[in-house]
Amino acid sequence: VAEAAVIGVPDERLGEVGKAFVVTLPGAALDKKSVIDYTREHLANFKTPRSVVFLDALPRNPGGKVVKTQLRSLTERA
After folding, report:
1. What CATH code is carried by the domain that includes residue 16?
2. Entry pTM
3. CA–CA separation, 5 vs 7, rounded Å?
4. How far apart are CA 6 and CA 20, in angstroms?
5. What is the pLDDT of residues 10-68, one digit of tens each?
6. Domains identified in the chain, total number
7. What residue numbers bound the domain in which 46 lies?
8. CA angle 16, 14, 53 (to 5 degrees)
9. For every residue of the chain, which 3-state class applies, written as one string?
């Protein structure tokens, strides 16, 4: 994983769960299950994302910060 960001998305049962947006290193062969399995081993269950989306790059503002509102709009369009 080169970089990642997580946002909260609505969930009927829990109210909100994490959705991870991941940029992989060149040549890396990752899948959604391996990312979720890794986070389950290293994070508390409530912090583990329930879904993963792979992107070429995370949206950033001119200051270099990840623009999570753009990630949310990607989720709403899907």
Report:
1. 3.30.300.30
2. 0.89
3. 7
4. 4
5. 999 999 999 999 999 998 889 999 999 999 999 999 999 999 999 999 999 999 999 99
6. 1
7. 3-77
8. 45
9. CCEEEEEEEEECCCEEEEEEEEECCCCCCCCHHHHHHHHHHHCCHHHCCCEEEECCCCCECCCCCECHHHHHHHHHHC
